[in-house]
Amino acid sequence: MVESTFSENRHLFSLPSLKKHALEGSFFVMVLLFIGFLFYTTLTWMWDDQRLPLSKIVLQGDLTYVTAGDVQHAFSEIEHIGTFMSQDIGVLQESLEALPWVSVVSIRKQWPDTIKVFLTEYQAAAIWNGNMLLNENGQVFNGDIGLLKGDRVKLYGPDGTSQVVIEKWRQITPLINSLGLTVTSLVLNERRAWQIILDNGIRLELGKDSLDERVERFISLYNELGSKANQVSYIDLRYDTGAAVGWFPEQELEESTDD
After folding, report:
1. In a designed cystine with 207, which of 120, 196, 223, 238 is the match (CB 3.0 to 4.6 A)?
2. Model confidence over 121-143: pLDDT tens digits?
3. Which residues touch 238 (CB under 8 Å, ≥6 apart)?
4. In the chain, what is the straight-line distance between the N-terminal and C-terminal CA atoms, in Å?
């Protein structure tokens, strides 16, 4: 009888405790549901295109060739522009990296409706193969050559040789400049032979080997030519020693003088 009484008492005593725990659990679940509702409502509001649209673009950078219109057009090509919260910055960045002249893109959001765009343009050091451009590192990029401000040297070469060609141009330029001349074109042909066109119209055939020595030989020869240099059409330096000089016909020179 003692054991039975003890069991009944324990059972009766535990009912209020269970009820209390049940109420506490229900309250906790209701709090969680309320927090979830607030979170869902907030996210829905923030992702609503009508609530937080990206409506302002701030364009920054030392720009010469890229305009605000170019940036707006690039963004307009994106299928869907999201809200301040939902828009993927990477998508915006890729659209601007595809623009001609754009080298580096940095984009960040500014609450509540603004994106700040900082652009760095390529610096055109040379015209490559007639229709492309090179930066200082010999990297090929696309840009409207007609928009270039100032003259650029024209470099030519097979695919994948742009860095070699621009480096050779840098090496040769000080030597040619010492004569008061300028390299207007440097060509590396498919046979890997070099050719130079100078601003006075002389064409130099340098071949494949001993390029530096042959340029030095041209400098010595040019100094010896003196006033006769303006009669020279080309100089072929593809010899171990010496050079072959091609002269303009006298009639052509006379016509040129009359002009």
Report:
1. 238
2. 999 999 999 999 999 999 999 99
3. 193, 205, 206, 207, 214
4. 137
